[in-house]
Write a structure and sequence with these properties.
The protein has nine helices and 17 strands. It has 350 residues and is of the alpha/beta class.
Length: 350
């Protein structure tokens, strides 16, 4: 089968911030296209999936550049949509051959720890991430554990559904952790793949709330306005009113104290990234006093993905998508790194 393989890591310092600085060192062709990659076979409780689309995520860049430790060689990709081609031994019948399914970041968890038994497998110490510990969807075929695949609503094309499995679902988890209610003022710091989906959800779930978007990119600010933002500005800007809730989607540290500074008393900030690649310096009186809170998002649970797919289908939430062929995967990664995309990058296999 044809697959894009990560055979070796790019040589980038651990503290570098690739997403916002195109001048930083980056291997132009980090992935190798291989037409003779062995087709995977489903093992116990796994299904074989013929991939139709796979989203390209910022975490893939972190993997390529060594900030997230994964196996090599590796097939990246954890926003997978495709058709079930075959069932492995022990499959219980949650899905059938021919059914369209999705695969997200958590590819397996232990099922026994205190987190797994309470539905918080996103905090399991032994979980295996898709496209990191388990080969992912930058290929014509992949395998996934039956209990970790999701049925895709028919209202979505496969390339539309792919970003919902990570960018959309992790944004939804951040919104839940923010404990948002209608009427509260909500701020977004950064407006990439996740935020541009989440604003569509927030506009529908909280119609009386004001949404403020902070972004360095004029294109992203324009998109935010089109998707329903009440105010847009640079991350250093001052919003017209204090925020009750804020979600930070950026990889840099300076947005955290800025967000805390513009939060109102009792406000909450949720940091919705795996890595902050610069230090965070908070002054207690200026940033934390008056019962302000900071929470972080760690992956997504299966419940998050299932709930979000239902919400997105019900409210016709769809991402802005730039499509690439599998052989264009390195171009997609470069565009993502250089922040020239609006919305989400997706590999369309067929």
């Amino acid at each position: 089968m044809r697959a894009a393989l990560l055979n070796e890591l790019a040589e980038v310092r651990a503290g570098d911030t690739p997403r916002r600085n195109p001048e930083l060192p980056f291997k132009e062709e980090p992935l190798d296209i291989n037409d003779n990659t062995p087709e995977p076979e489903p093992s116990f409780k796994q299904v074989l999936i013929r991939v139709e689309a796979c989203g390209v995520c910022y975490t893939d860049i972190d993997i390529i550049e060594g900030r997230v430790k994964c196996k090599t060689p590796l097939i990246l990709g954890h926003q997978i949509v495709g058709r079930v081609e075959a069932l492995g031994p022990g499959v219980k019948g949650r899905v059938e051959v021919g059914e369209r399914v999705g695969v997200a970041w958590i590819g397996w968890s232990c099922g026994k720890c205190k987190y797994c038994v309470t539905g918080l497998e996103n905090l399991c110490s032994d979980f295996k991430p898709t496209g990191c510990s388990i080969d992912g969807g930058y290929a014509e075929y992949t395998v996934a554990y039956e209990d970790y695949v999701y049925k895709i609503p028919e209202v979505f094309e496969s390339y539309e559904a792919a970003p919902l499995l990570c960018a959309g679902s992790v944004g939804y988890r951040a919104l839940k952790l923010a404990e948002m209610t209608d009427g509260l003022r909500l701020g977004f710091f950064g407006f990439g793949a996740s935020a541009h989906i989440l604003i569509q959800v927030a506009r529908r779930l909280y119609p009386s709330s004001e949404i403020y978007v902070f972004s360095r990119s004029s294109d992203h600010r324009e998109l935010a306005l089109r998707l329903g933002a009440d105010w847009v500005g640079h991350p250093s800007g001052i919003p017209p009113k204090k925020l009750d809730r804020a979600i930070d989607f950026t990889p840099v540290g300076e947005t955290v104290p800025k967000a805390m500074e513009v939060l109102d008393k009792g406000g909450r900030l949720v940091i919705n990234v795996i890595r902050k690649q610069t230090s965070i310096n908070l002054d207690y009186v200026k940033h934390l006093w008056m019962e302000k809170e900071v929470k972080t998002v760690a992956n997504v649970s299966r419940r998050d993905v299932e709930e979000f797919l239902g919400i997105a289908a019900n409210y016709s939430v769809k991402p802005e998508v730039t499509l690439y062929k599998l052989e264009q995967v390195n171009e997609a990664i470069r565009d993502l790194k250089r922040a020239v995309l609006r919305g989400s990058a997706v590999l369309k296999m067929r």
